[in-house]
Every structure is written in C-alpha cells, then in structure tokens.
C-alpha cells in the first residue's frame, strides 16, 4: 500500500483515481444499490488516500485539511458517490487521533495504513430528532438499527454511536464481519446512489473497543468543521464536474438554437446568451473553489484541537461559508447545464441529470440555512456558533 507522504503525492494519486473513476460514473449512478461498486471502491482502498490524515506519531503522513479538501474535490468531480464513501472514515480518523486510547489507535490505524476503511453507523430514523438514539451498548453488547450508513457495507470496521448504560453517548467500533452485524442495500434515493447508505442492524454484537463520545463535544472542537470540510469539497467537486461536462457538451455536441443562428452564431459556443450563462456559472464555481481553499487553510492553522472556543468558532464559520455557498453552486450548476446545452443534453444516454440529483441529495445532508444564520449571528452580534458535529 503506497504511503503518500506529501500534498503533491496525495493530489496526484487523487487525480489518477478520478481519471479511473470518471468513465464508469454514469453506469454506477444508473445501477445504484443494485450493483455494489466493489471495483471502484477497491481502487479507492488501494490508492493510499485512506491514510493521508493518519498522524505521524501513528505511522501516517499527517497531511492536513488543505490536502484532504483538494483530494476530495478531485474525486467528487469524477464521482461524488465514491468521494462520499470515505467522508466518515476521515472523520473517524480524526476522532481516533484526538480521543482514542493507545490500544485502539494502534489497532485501527494499522488497518487504515493497510488500506482498510472505517464505515459509519451514526444516524437513525424514527426518533424525535437526530440525537434521539435507540441503539444501546450494555454489558459489552451492542443492539440497534442505523441508517445513512455510508461506507459501512464495504468497510473493514464500523463506528457505531449508541447510548451507554449511564445514558451518555458512546462510540463503539465493531468489525464489519462480526457476528450479529448486517448491512443492507435498501438505499433508494434520487442521487448519490452508489454510496449505498442503507440500513445496518446490530444484534447482540460483542464490543471490544468503545469510548465516551459525549465528551468530544463538551469542549471546543474542530471535528464538526473538519467533517463538514469534506462535505463542502464534495459539493464543490460536483459543481466542477457539472461545469466540465457542460463545457465538453457545448464544444463537441451542442448545436446553436434558431435564435442564435439568426443572431449570427455559427456554433453553440458563439451564442451570446450561452457565453454569458457559462461565464457566470464558471465564475461562481471558481468562487466556490476559492472559499473551499480558504476554509481548508484556516483549519490547517488550527489543527485537530483548537486552542479555545474563539479559535474553534473561526474554523467552523470558515467551513460553514464554503459548505453553504458550495451547495448552492452545485445545485445551480447541475440545473444550469441543461439551459446551456439544450434539449438534446437531456437524453438519458448522457445521464447528465446525475449532477443535479447528486448535488440536491448531498446538499440536504444538513441544513445550509443554519450555516448562513450562524455566519450572520457572528458578523452582526458577535455570537459564536454552537459546538456540535455539523458545524
């Protein structure tokens, strides 16, 4: 397994992976949960990219948020579903680095360095709110049902959130192939279909590794910001992928409209309205990329553990801006593509609608309106954002 020790090596590996993933992205989208994308995920697992954020003291390269954001953006431009699969993996590497004991770090980081992925089972359905969990860890045994388990189906380990016997939130790590673990392919959504983020069921599963997770958010933290940075990079990658496909279609396939011909345009790319719309969209995509880079640089300077609440707020707000704007631009790009390229671009054979479907599905992972709210609260009233895992 290659150990990617520099930013340049990681970005080059991501570019190579993106080039390998791009030709099959439309087919994986069409297949959805009917066909597990084992070949594509195997390329990811063997790329060395899973280990880029493992700390140096644990044998990894210890690369930072700027590297992670660029790696994710490049992969997402080719296939955002594959890019989302390791999102929780990178969060869990951060959690382990900050909160896990020596034995757990040694065990799991050795696997990560060997290309073995950590999946998540954090969310549930049916509760009154997102933190209304029914999964329980008692007597060293885990029982519960989870959904939105991105990456769990094909992972080596699964991190499961549960309530302990004292009512506090704990994080348990169980082997994917442990007795009592079942991960289903009941993932039926309009976008990000190849993530296969369906139901995971845990029935009397023995747990060897767990720790108190409530404490992670009782102090200033950057886990939420670092996790959201990857989500932001996925959105910005989707926007860039849609723009690239629009450019290719306009240059190679699109014909000018009758009105454009009457106005003197011999090609679709000479249509003045196409030129305006494309130029405007390209500018907004570049702006989203710039915000992403700025947010990543901010987190680079903070590190995994912020010095204080004000520093944590700085990181959270920088990422909030990038995520909110990037989500808007991704949805816009996925829709504007058709206004640019015309009726023929809507043919099912091109599957260009996947850009909008992926953006729309992923952008509602958590509400962007609250990100703008917290940005305004800080700018207008000096109110720091809340301390939680989605900001």
TrEMBL record:
Keywords: Oxidoreductase. Pfam families: Acyl-CoA_dh_2, Acyl-CoA_dh_N. GO terms for biological process: L-leucine catabolic process. Residues 229-367 form the Acyl-CoA dehydrogenase C-terminal domain. Residues 7-115 form the Acyl-CoA dehydrogenase/oxidase N-terminal domain. Gene3D superfamilies: Acyl-CoA dehydrogenase/oxidase, N-terminal domain, Butyryl-CoA Dehydrogenase, subunit A, domain 2, Butyryl-CoA Dehydrogenase, subunit A, domain 3. GO terms for molecular function: 3-methylbutanoyl-CoA dehydrogenase activity; flavin adenine dinucleotide binding. It comes from the Bacteria. InterPro entries: Acyl-CoA_DH_C (IPR013107), Acyl-CoA_Oxase/DH_mid-dom_sf (IPR046373), AcylCo_DH-like_C (IPR036250), AcylCoA_DH/ox_N (IPR013786), AcylCoA_DH/ox_N_sf (IPR037069), AcylCoA_DH/oxidase_NM_dom_sf (IPR009100). This is SfnB family sulfur acquisition oxidoreductase.
């Amino acid at each position: 397994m290659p150990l990617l020790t520099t930013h340049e090596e990681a970005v080059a590996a991501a570019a190579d992976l993106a080039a390998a993933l791009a030709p099959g992205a439309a087919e994986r989208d069409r297949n959805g949960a009917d066909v597990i994308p084992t070949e594509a995920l195997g390329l990811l697992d063997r790329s060395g990219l899973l280990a880029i954020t493992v700390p140096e003291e644990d044998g990894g390269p210890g690369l930072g948020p700027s590297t992670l954001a660029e790696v994710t953006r490049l992969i997402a431009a080719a296939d955002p579903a594959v890019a989302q699969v390791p999102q929780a993996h990178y969060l869990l590497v951060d959690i382990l680095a900050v909160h896990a004991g020596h034995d757990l770090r040694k065990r799991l980081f050795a696997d990560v360095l060997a290309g073995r992925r950590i999946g998540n089972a954090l969310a549930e359905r049916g509760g009154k709110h997102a933190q209304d969990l029914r999964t329980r860890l008692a007597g060293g045994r885990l029982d519960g049902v989870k959904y939105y388990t991105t990456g769990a189906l094909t992972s080596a380990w699964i991190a499961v959130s549960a309530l302990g016997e004292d009512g506090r939130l704990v994080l348990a790590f169980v082997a994917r192939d442990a007795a009592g673990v079942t991960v289903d392919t009941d993932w039926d959504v309009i976008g990000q279909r190849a993530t296969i983020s369906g139901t995971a069921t845990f029935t009397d599963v023995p747990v060897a590794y767990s720790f108190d997770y409530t404490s992670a958010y009782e102090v200033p933290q950057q886990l939420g910001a670092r996790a959201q940075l990857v989500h932001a990079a996925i959105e910005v990658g989707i926007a860039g992928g849609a723009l690239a496909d629009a450019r290719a279609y306009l240059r190679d396939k699109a014909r000018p409209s009758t009105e454009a011909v009457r106005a003197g345009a011999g090609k679709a790319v000479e249509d003045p309205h196409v030129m305006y719309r494309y130029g405007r969209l390209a500018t907004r995509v570049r702006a989203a990329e710039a915000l992403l880079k700025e947010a990543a640089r901010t987190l680079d300077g903070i590190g995994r553990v912020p010095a204080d609440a004000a520093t944590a707020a700085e990181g959270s707000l920088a990422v909030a801006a990038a995520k909110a704007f990037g989500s808007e631009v991704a949805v816009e790009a996925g829709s504007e593509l058709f206004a640019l390229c015309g009726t023929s671009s809507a043919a099912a054979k091109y599957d260009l609608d996947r850009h909008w479907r992926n953006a729309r599905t992923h952008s509602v992972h958590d509400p962007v309106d609250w990100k703008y709210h917290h940005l305004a609260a800080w700018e207008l009233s000096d109110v720091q954002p809340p301390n939680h895992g989605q900001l």
